[in-house]
Amino acid sequence: MYCFLRLSVLLVGLIVSASSYAANAVQPLTTADDLGPKVEQPIEFPHDRHAGDAAKGGMEINCMYCHTYARRSIVAGIPPLQKCIGCHQSIESVRETPRIKKLFEYWEAKKAVPWKKVHDLPDFVRFNHERHIQRFVFAQNKPVQEACGYCHGDVKTMTVARRQKPLSMGWCVSCHQKDHPVDATSTKTTHGPNDCWQCHK
Amino acid sequence: MIENSFNRRDFLKVLGWGSATVALSGCGNTSVEDGKEFVTSYVQTADYIIPSIGTYFNSTCAQCDAGCGIMGRVREGRVLKLEGNPKSSINNGKMCGLGQAGVQAHYNPDRIREPLLRNGDKGEAITWEKALGLINEKVGGVRAENVAFLTGGVSGHVKALLKNYLDALGSGHHYVYEAVAPSVMRAANKKAYGVEMPRLRMDKAKVILSFGADFLGAWISPVHFSQQYARFRKADNGKRGVLVQVESKMTLTGANADRWLVIRPGTEGIFALGLINALAAAGLSVPGDVAAVVKEYTTDRVSKDTGVPTEHIAKLAALLKERSPSLIIAGSAAEGYAHGSQNATAIALLNQVLGNVGKTVEGSSGIPFPQMAPTTGNRQALQILNDNMAQDKVKVLFSYGSNPVFTAPASMKLKENLKKVPFKVAFAHYMDETAVEADLVLPLNSALEDWGTVMPEYIADGAQLNIRQPLMEKLHPGTLGMGDILLALLKQRRPEEYKGYEDFYSYLRNAMVSNKGALGGANADDNTFWEAALSHGMVKLVGSPINISSHVSANGLVVPAPFVEDSTYPLHLIPAVSASLRDGRNANEPWLQESPDPLTTIVWDSWVEMHPKTAAKLGIVEGDIVEVASKSGAIKAQVYVFTGIHPDVISVPLGYGHEAMGRYAKGVGVNAFKILDPVFDKETGELAMHETRVKVSKAGQRVIIVKDEGPAGGNQMGRKIAVRMSSDKVNLSKEV
Ligand code: SF4
C-alpha cells in the first residue's frame, strides 16, 4: 500500500509537471526579445538620461561607472547610494526635481533605496557577470554597451530598466553555441561552456 | 515572456513530490521573481566591499570561555560563516564545532527582541528608557548591600565597567558563577605552583597522563590543546608522544589515548600516589618525606583500590620513568569528589616528583591591566548568593551570562529563593530558565553584533586582549550590548564621568587609544593603532612572566580510602560535559543538537551510558527508558550500553533538559544538574560533581535510539572496517 501510494503521488507530480513542460515545450533557441513585466521602482531611474547618446540628451556614462562590480564579481550590483549623491550633490540644476529630492531623502535618512530586482534567475542558476565582461569587454574589446546589451537589451534607451530577453536556459545556450572568435594566440575556446555544472549549482 | 503556469510556490510544491519532476519543470522556468524581490544596495560602503564576494572581519568567539579569535565571512552585510583567526595564538586559525554554531546563536529565531517587564505571568514589551529608569528607581530604593550582580566569567572592558557600576552603587556584591569550571584544579594549582592556570606544554612532553581532563573535547581551551596535542603526537624529533588517560567514563580524549585505563571513581589520588611509590621502587629519586607518605601505596593495594591491574601500573611507571619530561594533568575525573583537592594535590605531587614543573608545566604571564583580567567563578559564589537570598538580604538581583536556575542542583532550592528577591533583572539572549523568573528582561546583542574585549584565562604565551566587534548590523533594533547597558546605568550614577561617551563603542575606543602605549601602539597615531587592533582582532600584551614554583608538600596529604558500597544507591553518576553542549548555554542552537556525540553518536536527546555488565545485571538493553534516582531527585532517559565506562558508573550528559530557552532546547532530553547531591569539595567548597550516587530502575518503555552509528562491530557490507582487539592483548611498551 505504502509503495503504491508513493507511486501515485509521483505520477500526479509527473502529469502536472509534464503539462507545464508541454506549455513550455518550445525552448526559445533564439536571441529574440522577450519583454519582461514592467517593474515599478521607488525612484524611476532614467537610464536614458545617464547612459544615452549625447545627441538624444544623454550623458554617455559608461555602464560600469555605476555598475562597477560587474567586472569583478558575479553580480553587477546596484551602486551604493553614496555614488548617486557623489555626483548629484554638485548638480544644482536638477536638485529640486521630485526624483532627486526623493533620492536625498533616502540619503539623509541613511536608508537604502528598496530597488526591485528586474533580472532574476532561478536559485539553481549561477550567472557570472565578471566572466562575461572580462571576455567581451576586456579580452575582445567590445563596446561596453554592446556587451551588456547581449542580455540586458539597449538599456541606454530605457528609463526604468525592463527585462528584454528570455534569460531561459535555451536562450543562454543559443549564445554559448555561437562562435565568438578570439585572437589566434588565445587559449580560450571560441564558444561558451556547455557543461551543466558551469551554470547549475 | 513565456507564460509559465508554474510560479515559484507551485514549483516548490512539486519539488517535494519527487526529483523526477524537478528536472522537467525546472527547465525554462525563468524570471521567477521579476520585479518582486528587492535588490537593496548599500547606502555607503568601503571600496573593498563587493557584492557577492565575502569580506572577513576578525572578532572573538563567544561560544565558550576559551576566547578563540575568529574571522567572520561577511557578504552583503550578513555574516555567513566563521573561521579561526590565524593571528590568535590561542587557536591559530582553527575553530571547533561549538564555535561554528555561533552563527546560529546570532540568527536564532528565539532571541528576545525588546525589553520585557513582568506583568503577572507575561512579559510586556517596554522601551529601553523605561527599563533603565526602572532599574535606577529600584537600585535607588534599596540599600547598596542589598544589590547583587551575578555573572558568568567576565573580563575586559565590560568587567571594568561592571566594577565601576557596583562601586558607584556602593556595593561590592559581584558573584561570579561558572557551572562547569575547573575550580578545584585552579585552587590546587595555586597551592602547588603559585599560579592558578599554569601553561601546559603538551608539545614538550613525551608522555601525558591525564586524569579525566577532556582537553580535546571540552576542557579549558580545547582548540589550543588539540593543536598542542598534534605536535605532541608528531614531535619534531620524530618521537611520538604517548597519551594515557585514566578515568571512570571515557571522554573524547580518552578515546584518542594510546592507553585508556578505567578506574574506580574517586581513587585517582590513590593511583597517583601508587605511581610515585612504583617510580621510587623503580629507582626514581623521591624525597624522603614523599617516600614516607607513599610507601603504603603498594602496587597490590593500589590495584585493589583502583581496579587497575598491577601490570598496567608497573608499565605506566616504567613508561614515565623512561620518558621524561612527561605531563600529568588533573581533570574533572580527579577533582569532582569531596576529596577532589586531595586528588589534585596528589597529582601535582606526581608532576613534581617526575621533575615536570618548569619543563612541561610552566608559569603564566602577568596581566598588565588587572582590572580587565578574567574573573573566574565557582559554584561556591552561587551558594553564598543563594544563602543571602534565602535570608532576604538581596533586594535587587542582576543576572548576566549564567543560567543558575538551569544549572543549580535542585537541592539548592535556588528557584524558590529567587522568588524572595523583589526585583530581578536578567540580561539575556533567550528566555532561558533564569530570564523566565526575572521581573525585567533586557535583550542583549548577539556576540556577532556587539562591541567588547575579552581577556582569555588560558593563552600559550604572554597575554592577549581580544577584540569583539560587530560583524554585521544588529538584526533586531531593540537589543543592546552589555557594555552599552552598563554605560547607560553608569551615566545615571556618575553623569559627569561618563557623559562624554555617546555609546560603549566610543568608550571602548577611547579607553584603548588612551592606553595605546601599554597596548603595543606607542609609536602609532590613534587611528592607525585602533584600526590595526580591529583588523587583527586583538592586541598582544606584554606582561611580566610569573615564575612557577613547586612546593607540594607530602606532609598531611591524605587521600581517603575508596568509597564504601551503598546498597540503596549502588551506582556513581558522572555528569558528562560534552564538547557541544557544555553547561547547556548553547542548547538552543540546532547544529549542536544535531551533531552526533563523538562517542555514542546520539543526537537530539539525553542518554544514560551504562556498562554492558551492569546492564545485563539489571536486565536492561539499549533503548530501555530507565529512571535514574539520587537522593536529590530523579530523571528518566534512554540507556546506551557502552563499554567505555566503569561498571559501577553511569553517565548522563549535561546541557540537555531545558524547560525554557527556545524551540530547539526546550523539552529535549533531561537535566542532569538537577539530581546532583549537595556534596562539596572539602577544601574549596566546590560542588563535587562526581559524588552523586544513584539507583537505576527500568521505567517500562523501550525506544529506538536516534544515533548515527552503524551496526555494532564495525562491519560494513560484510567487510570489517575496524579490527578490534581486546586491550590485554596489546603490549603498550611494544606498541609505542
Ligand atoms: S574552543 Fe570555545 S572559543 Fe574556541 S572556537 Fe570553540 S567554542 Fe569558540
Description:
With 201 residues, chain A is mainly alpha-helical. Helix content of chain A is 41%, strand content 0%. Chain A starts with a helix and ends with a helix. Mean pLDDT of chain A is 81; it is low at 1-30. By secondary structure, chain B is an alpha/beta fold. Chain B is built from 26 helices and 27 strands. The chains are: A mainly alpha (201), B alpha/beta (736). At the A-B interface, helix 1 of A face helix 2 of B. Residues 61, 63-64, 66-68, 91, 95-96, 98-99, 222-223 of chain B line the site of iron/sulfur cluster (SF4).
Structural class of the secondary elements of chain B? Answer: alpha/beta
- Provide a count of the helices of chain B: 26
What is the number of helical segments of chain A per DSSP (H or I, 4+ residues)? 9
Strand content of chain A: under 5%
Most residues in contact: chain pair: A-B, 55 and 37 residues
Ends apart, CA distance between termini of chain A: 36 Å
Helix content of chain B: 25-40%
- Quick one: biggest sheet of chain B? 7 strands, mixed
Mean pLDDT reading of chain B: 89
Following the backbone from N to C, one meets helices and strands of chain A in this order, namely HHHHHHHHH
Could you name the key traits of this structure?
heterodimer; A: 201 residues; mainly alpha; 9 helices; 41% helix; disordered N terminus; B: 736 residues; alpha/beta; seven-stranded mixed β-sheet; six-stranded mixed barrel; 26 helices; 27 strands; 30% helix; 18% strand; binds iron/sulfur cluster
